[in-house]
């Protein structure tokens, strides 16, 4: 052509179009995913380090699209947040997780707990508390068996409003956990005012946990702080026996990770637990 510079511009804008198209395509698939039943939940066991027993699980969403295959939540949850789809998806996760956990309790795992991730836009919507109440009512799950995992980014948006919602949740009997603890703002002065039951240490601190690393000092400090604040501490991302042994020594309450169990389908979770009765 006459103008190579012009071609270059066309080339770039085509590439940008492609990215925008891919995003639009993903978004349009995401809009239909609920009705088409493409979501399901996996359940990753949470164990009590003192007894080695599974006391509950974390529900983790999975999206299996017929054309794209499995799409990671790291990819579609942010998109769901941006497009407002998170309200519907989050509500589906909450209801499905509560129902499943109640079903397992009725099968004999009476004290089993369920943890559910809540994203920022879901937490901030005015109807959020009502939705939690409805999920509990409809499933028959008692509130003490439900833990909601919130990230620090949620609280940074509007700390006073967040605290009031967290307090209301606790008044219902629902437990509140801070997820990915240590990666966000984590100011110690705000922590003492937060109505929380659990701190979940981010897996980046646990993954590298070995004797004589600086991570050990951080993890130890978080656990000590948890004991001081009468808050339970969970270590996520436990991948080795050495890490488990260390966490036990440090008196960490709970753990979760590939070394213990990967996220399991509901069937596998059920089979595993029934094979080894927990009580
Ligand atoms: P998260 O809440 O921090 O969840 C833990 C993630 O770590 C999960 O990834 C889990 O599969 C993974 N994991 C567990 N044990 C190990 C381990 O030993 N090593 C390593 N490397 N990873 C481990 P997943 O399922 O891909 O979820 C990623 C993130 O997507 C979650 O991080 C959470 O932020 C978000 N997410 C997942 N499900 C939901 C949901 O239902 N609602 C919302 N709002 N977010 C969700
Ligand atoms: Ca989580
Ligand atoms: Ca986490
Ligand atoms: Ca995370």
Automatic annotation (TrEMBL):
* Residues of the EAL domain: 23-277
User: What is the name listed in the Swiss-Prot or TrEMBL entry for this protein?
Assistant: EAL domain-containing protein
> What organism is the protein native to?
Robertmurraya mangrovi
Parent protein range shown? 692 to 970 of 971
